Amino acid sequence: MAYDYDLFTIGAGSGGVRCSRMSAARGARVGIAESRFLGGTCVNVGCVPKKLFVYAAHFRDEVEEAAGFGWTTEGAPHFDWATLRHHKDREIERLNGIYRRLLEGAGAELHEGRARIVDPHCVEVTYADGRTQRHSAENILVATGGQPVRPTEPGTERAWISDDVFYLDELPRRMLVVGGGYIALEMACIFHGLGSEVTLAYRGPHPLRGFDDDVRTFLCEEIRKKGIQLHLNTEVVHLSDGPHGAIDAMLSHEESITVDAALYAIGRVPNTANLGLGEAGVALDARGAIVVDEHYRTNVPSIWAIGDVTDRVQLTPVAIAEGMALTETLFGDGGPQTVDYANIPTAVFSMPPLATVGLTEAEARVAHGAVRVFTSEFRPLKHTLSGSSERMFIKMIVAAESDRVVGVHMVGPDGPEIIQAVAVALQCGATKAQFDRTIGLHPSSAEELVTMRTPRPERD
Hints:
The protein is 31% helix and 24% strand. It is α/β, with parallel strands linked by helices.
């Protein structure tokens, strides 16, 4: 049978765009549908604008700390939210244009509308003007990503989710952040850095479940030192209207706080609704994620899925890597490809940031039995003059039998930049002895990674 396309992709996020344009560059006939904006969550309401906001949030501390280095500043620094939002919007618009040019330059045909699977080889697109058109394809790729979970507690109709904060009209003076994942931590730190009074409420004992316990504890201490109010083991019972347009938040333990805004960052779910997946017979798991095999094929042989919609590893570079692997599988000469999910570096752009690669201590003990743990806590050189009490923490986990470094975790400035290079070492199977033989770069925080010699005593 002759199809309109060799590949039709639903969703023009990072993974979908990579697979589509690389497949088109190899000569495949490719169509791609997007109903919202090019680049997906990362470019528009995720990684990129968030990191721009992180940069903005750091400047207040930089100005305050400059006095210790001899700089004189007149008065308190002033921040204008509208300027930041405008410049952010301009940059996102530029990136959208780049994604469009990449697709068109590769020869992929962009359909700006909402796509729905009709059958294993047919997609129907509803365009902005209301017309619909069906397109046949030998292969259909679903790369629709995920979306924030919306709260359902009483009174949360006024609450924001993470998508909303990038388009606010003004900066809130008092803000409640609900959640304990990386988005909640990052947003709490961003808005505190920009000048808001921030309270973070999380139902568990420490935020960032799944990260190493020592770095979770250390990061909480540093965040508290900066002035963010942490309410742990705390539920938000309900929100209600407060005085002068404010919000009254009733917390568990019968405590109430008044804020001007409430952000719920309580997780993300796969975007699988209204795509025709059920009618096409595509299997979903209990969370609504598309079930795929190791090569990203669903139980329907002509339908594939990559990225956050599969709920595996929700990171932009992972979706891009999966998109490239699928391109090779479908249109390459090397047979089916997959992605190595070990030793993926991860960062939380809190203030200070957290960066990690490899196994946590708990995971390493399960996987390797005996381990040696090396830690270092210190005051970065910059803060010996800045006056800041911020400290840095580094933890290295070594499998005792093989001497391989199986996990590195950091909290402190430049951690995300450092951890990328550490990930290369772990991917190559570097041992602690090889770290020890490496000459340190002095003076730097990174040199601690090659100077830690004494393992931490075993805990009871």
